[in-house]
């Protein structure tokens, strides 16, 4: 009798889970000036696109463009992704985001940024589909911009008063600063400046309300005087009538 051998159960191969770190171990900024610019650009863009739920904006968030490649990554100072919902993310894994790359990226330079490092970044952004790339050096007041043309990030020749095709914001270089303007013309402000603007608007509103209250009070007083004068007139007519005097015959 031939004994039938039953093959052992074949277990599917289990691939080890790939861990994509949420931090690259580098600080968000090297100094206060760089940090302030990162926050200023990121928060004002958040305000600009607050009504649009399909625009995701992040600061210093790791972007992984290729599934399975942990070392293929960048953490732009600010990135904007059209076509992806707002929300919290530990990192931006592009294959989980309908394979949509950030279309606009900002980098704020610090003394620690090397030319070699920035060259690697521009090649990375070009390779993985960034459409607009802006680099600002707050120490030298220099703004450099690149725009994607035929799969290459080409330098923008005249960046002063340049309007971003994607964001519709305008960049203006002055002697001592970079100014960025909303599509409707208002200037990007820091959180402190925004708070001051809110306080000024509140003060103006309070003053307007105070003037309105004073006007109402004067109107009420005028009405009371008119009512009192009418009452006095009616009382006088009653007294004259009681004495048999008809003012129509006077």
Radius of gyration (Å): 34 Å
Q: What is the succession of H and E elements? A: HEEEEEHEEEEEH
Number of H/I helices: 3
**Overall average residue pLDDT:** 88
Uncertain parts: none
How does the helix and strand content classify structurally?
Answer: alpha+beta
* Overall morphology: elongated
Helix content: 25-40%
State the distance separating the first and last CA atoms.
148 Å
> How many strands, which pairing sense, and closed or not: the largest β-sheet?
6 strands, mixed
Strand order of the largest sheet: 1-3-5-6-7-8
Percent strand equals: 15-25%
Structure characteristics:
alpha+beta, 10 strands, 6-stranded mixed beta sheet, 3 helices, 250 residues, two-stranded parallel sheet
Characterise this structure.
This protein is of the alpha+beta class and 250 residues long. Helices cover 33% and strands 18% of the residues. It starts with 31 loop residues before the first helix and ends in an 8-residue tail after the last helix. The strands form three sheets. A six-stranded mixed beta sheet has the order 1-3-5-6-7-8, sandwiched between helices. It has three helices and ten strands, in the order αβββββαβββββα.
Write the layout of secondary structure elements.
Layout: H1 32-48, E1 55-59, E2 63-64, E3 78-82, E4 92-93, E5 104-108, H2 115-127, E6 132-137, E7 142-149, E8 152-155, E9 170-173, E10 178-181, H3 191-242
Parallel strand pairs: 2-4, 5-6
Antiparallel strand pairs: 1-3, 3-5, 6-7, 7-8, 9-10
């Amino acid at each position: 009798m031939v004994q039938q051998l039953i093959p052992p159960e074949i277990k599917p191969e289990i691939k080890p889970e790939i861990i994509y770190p949420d931090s690259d171990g580098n600080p968000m900024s090297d100094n206060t000036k760089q940090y302030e610019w990162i926050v200023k650009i990121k928060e004002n863009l958040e305000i600009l696109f607050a009504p649009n739920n399909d625009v995701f904006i992040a600061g210093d968030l790791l972007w992984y463009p290729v599934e399975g490649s942990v070392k293929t990554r960048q953490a732009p100072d600010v990135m904007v992704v059209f076509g992806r919902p707002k929300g919290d993310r530990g990192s931006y894994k592009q294959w989980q985001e309908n394979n949509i790359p950030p279309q606009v990226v900002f980098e704020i330079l610090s003394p620690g940024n090397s030319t070699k490092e920035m060259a690697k970044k521009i090649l990375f952004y070009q390779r993985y589909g960034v459409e607009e790339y802006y680099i600002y050096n707050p120490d030298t007041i220099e703004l450099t911009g690149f725009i994607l043309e035929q799969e290459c990030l080409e330098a923008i020749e005249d960046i002063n008063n340049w309007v971003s095709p994607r964001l519709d914001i305008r960049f203006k270089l002055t002697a001592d600063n970079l100014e960025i303007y909303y599509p409707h013309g208002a200037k990007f402000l820091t959180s402190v400046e925004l708070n001051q603007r809110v306080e000024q608007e509140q003060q103006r509103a309070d003053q307007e309300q105070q003037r309105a209250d004073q006007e109402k009070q004067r109107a009420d007083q005028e009405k009371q005087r008119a009512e009192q004068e009418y009452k006095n007139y009616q009382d006088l007519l009653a007294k004259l009538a009681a004495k048999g005097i008809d003012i129509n015959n006077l």
